Amino acid sequence: MVTEAVAARKTREPELLGQTVVVIGGSAGIGLETARRAQVEGADVIVTGRDRDRLGAAAASLGARSSAAFDANDSSALEQFFAALDGPVDHVMVTAGGPYYAPLAEMDFDEARRALQEHPMLMAGVARFAAGKVRPGGTLLFMGGTGARHPAVGVGLMSGMTAALPALTASLAREIAPVRVNLIAAGFVDTPLSASLLGGHLDERRAELRATLPIRRVVQPADVAALAVHIMTNTALTGATYDIDGGQQLLSM
Fold this sequence. Notes:
Layout: H1 2-10, E1 20-24, H2 29-40, E2 44-49, H3 52-62, E3 66-69, H4 75-84, E4 89-94, H5 109-130, E5 134-145, H6 156-175, E6 180-186, H7 192-198, H8 202-212, H9 221-233, E7 241-244
Parallel strand pairs: 1-2, 1-4, 2-3, 4-5, 5-6, 6-7
Helix pairs in contact: 2-9, 4-5, 5-6
């Protein structure tokens, strides 16, 4: 009985075999790792990003079906990208965009306004332009954060924005069904974006998390990618937010 179970695991078919996964923001970090994971599971991948050179290198390393360089926050460019896709796709993962952190006294209001609008409007744009391209039962999968659960100086506006994304996710799931819509709320993930935000404090933050998180290690892009692929393959999941923070939210309990 045990031998049969082991044999079944060894011979299982890839979970995304014959499917197509689009990763918007797929040239680095979580997006690139999700594209790799989807490919291992049998998917054809299409990746996009703003930096043409970095995107080209990522697409070549993946052997991606195709790539497209554009700013996902440009609504016209986003619409044109989906309109030009050759045939339907199965899943769209969106990791584009970054946060803006500053204490109130130092805040650049124009930059803060841009950051507040960026994530929800990108979600709305992808839902609008991609819905007709995604096969029924496929998913739109967005990245959010857990900042709203950890009030702190300098994160106020971003915490408010991240608190709104689960509600938007649920509403979009109702509106564009049977395409599914889900959100991953990540804590600290060890990515190039995190490195750019923390600068010289990166190693200190890693050490702190290793010492305090219940999992005793830092969450990596591969952890998020594994969750993303699970959400793609489990067709019972829609309108929900899935936390991945290594148990960080438990520390305040």
